[in-house]
Request: fold
Amino acid sequence: MDCKKVKKELSSYLDNEINLDQKSKVKEHLKKCKACSYQLKQLRQIQSLVQKIPSQKPEPGFYERLSSRLSKKKITLKERLFGWGYIGRLSPRVAIVASIVLILSISSLYLWRSSSISGVNIEVFQKEYIYYSNEMSSFAEESVLPVLLEIK
Amino acid sequence: MHLTYSDEQLVEKFKAGDKDSFRILVERYKSRVYNIIYGIMGSGNEAEDLSQEVFLNVYRFLHRFKEKSKFYTWLYRIAVNVCFSAQKKKNKSSNVLSLTELSETDNTSGKMELADQSFSSQKKLEDMELARKIKSAINSLSEVLKTTFVLREFEDLSYQKLAKVFQCSKGTIKSRLSRAREELRQKLKPYIGEKNGL
Reply:
């Protein structure tokens, strides 16, 4: 195995993630090659230094903070589904379309209601008109007859 | 008593509606997740925020976890994705510090720490300086190399497990680690050697 190949294998050799055959070949090469041995030594130094970096831990109360974010997230979801906050988060295009649909729905509802109200009025009016015109005609008949008799 | 439950059992319990098992999983993994994210992002504030983001995702998606892999492999995958997406956002925003700048910020705090430690021995100062340089070198690695390296070194994950986390082949992991180490070696060359007595 030449230096180029060995250098490619050094990292997995360090991690012991190399098959036995390759491992023995690298080992053989390292015995003879100072440059590759030195490179492996440097990699070991780096590994050792990295492992010395103290591990970091979250501040106490991590779960409580998480839990509070979790409940806020739930509220946000509710808001998004049912709340007014959702409108603010809509994209302008969606907001415009939603507004148009809303306006159209309200106006058609209004038109439908007003037409149904006027429909009732017409019916009532027609009934009343018929009633009053009958009344009027009978009155007219009554009032006209004596006049006609008088003329006669 | 809850310590006796395996991850798999806790996942099952959570799926069955026992929300307390989520708390146990958080307590079990919070430090590891925090440490990994700290190693990748290089800042405590981000580590706290992103670690919480990881667990929020766990809570949201645990019911979809099909348990084809180990829970922690899945968890680390979420952590890696959260870090990648945070890094993407950071790169998009022109106002935010770059990784190099971040490590320089750390340098300043490191210098302040160094000043505060004026009574410490010279050796301790040298060690701190070296640790700072290593952190800075790790931070300067590309996102993929850094994440793979951090998970390998901090969590001691095997190549097989890393391949599962990153959903790639063992060969890819091997190549990434080799490149990461070579870059670190080049950057840290002036600071490592006989004089450090390592």
